[in-house]
Write a structure and sequence with these properties.
The protein folds into two domains: 7-231, Spore Coat Polysaccharide Biosynthesis Protein SpsA, Chain A (Alpha-Beta Complex), CATH 3.90.550.10; 235-310. Helix content is 49%, strand content 13%. It contains ten helices and eight strands. It has helices at residues 20-34, 51-61, 76-86, 106-114, 132-149, 165-168, 181-187, 213-231, 235-268, 280-310; strands spanning 7-13, 38-44, 65-70, 91-94, 120-124, 161-164, 193-197, 317-321. Strands 7-5-6-4-1-2-3-8 form an eight-stranded mixed β-sheet, with helices on both faces. It is elongated.
């Protein structure tokens, strides 16, 4: 593996046989024009349309093109994370394989990292060639993510990003967390995060692989990564506070019910007043507290288990080229 490369371009792909030849040729042309030493690592995420066979042909023509093939579709996060493992360039560029990201942006992204000392530069597709059904939810998604994370980016989900090599070697991307790489990077101590307006091209081949469901799961992922990142090393700060508040609230509710019962017995002599355990408020409060705490605790433990074991997971690569 060459450790002196200027740029590694990591490209996840899934059923993009029509576009990968044009994309790799375009990347190569840009690299040669600017005198960059480079590699293109294309990660085939279980394609079944002949993408891997086409990639084999391309590697014969250009030894800078390298390939990794999964035995099935694991998702974009898995493809990126695997590509990051093999990337050796000082700057790592990620882009999608559908030609909607322009390789002409690579030189400026490289300069922003190397000369402006950014750890990560995210593309901003200011002018998008997408239907309103995607653009409106995307703007809302980016607004909420920015508010929660404190990172001022307009487009968290843009596939075109540039990273300092130390960043991609220090983070782990799993599940569907590729949307939140800037957030993950920040919480790993990489605070120099910038943004660059990039060209967003209309899709030339095929159709998008993402639907509206990704926006729903996206917010769930954001809640998950926010929670785990803040509390995985100090869970008692969260659960101790929650447990104390729950206990105090439950204690005072029960105390009030008992006090009310005793008041009626001693002062009003209302022997027909209901027992404490006969009142719906007692059971509603008790059930809500127990179920709420148990569910939250179960979710936290499950997420912690995932984080602990996800790093041990090796995606099954059935073939590699040039690596």
């Amino acid at each position: 593996m060459n450790n002196n490369l200027d740029i590694s371009v990591v490209v996840p792909l899934y059923n993009e046989v029509e576009s990968i030849a044009e994309l790799t040729e375009w990347i190569g042309r840009v690299m040669e024009e600017h005198g960059f030493s480079y590699e293109v690592i294309m990660v085939d995420d279980g394609s079944d349309d002949g993408s891997w066979e086409k990639l084999n042909e391309l590697t014969q023509l250009n030894n800078c093109i390298k390939g990794i093939r999964f035995n099935r579709n694991y998702g974009k996060s898995a493809a990126l994370n695997t590509g990051f493992k093999f990337a050796s360039g000082e700057v790592v560029i990620t882009m999608d394989a559908d030609l909607q990201d322009s390789p002409d942006e690579i030189p400026e992204l490289y300069q922003l990292v190397m000369k402006n000392n950014y750890d990560l530069v995210s593309g901003w597709k200011k002018k998008r060639h997408d239907p309103i059904s995607k653009t409106i939810p995307s703007k809302f998604f980016n607004f909420v993510t920015g508010k929660i994370s404190g990172i001022k980016l307009h487009d968290f989900n843009c596939g075109l990003k540039a990273y300092r090599n130390s960043v991609i070697k220090s983070i782990y991307v799993y599940g569907e967390m590729h949307r939140y790489i800037p957030v993950i990077a920040k919480w790993n101590g990489f605070n120099q995060i910038g943004e660059k307006v990039v060209e967003h091209r209309a899709r030339k081949y095929g159709k998008t692989k993402f639907g509206f469901q990704r926006f729903i799961t996206g917010f769930l992922d954001l809640a998950s990564i926010t929670f785990v990142s803040k509390f995985r090393k100090k869970p008692m700060h969260f659960f101790g506070t929650l447990g104390s508040l729950s206990f105090i609230a439950g204690f005072f509710i029960v105390l009030w019910l008992i006090g009310e019962k005793l008041y009626f017995l001693w002062y009003i002599k209302a022997t027909l007043h209901r027992d404490v355990v006969d009142q719906p408020l007692f059971y509603i409060a008790l059930v809500a507290l127990i179920v709420g705490v148990q569910l939250f605790l179960a979710g936290f433990l499950a997420e912690m288990y995932t984080m602990q074991n996800a790093r041990k997971e090796d995606y099954i690569m059935i073939e590699k080229i040039g690596l």
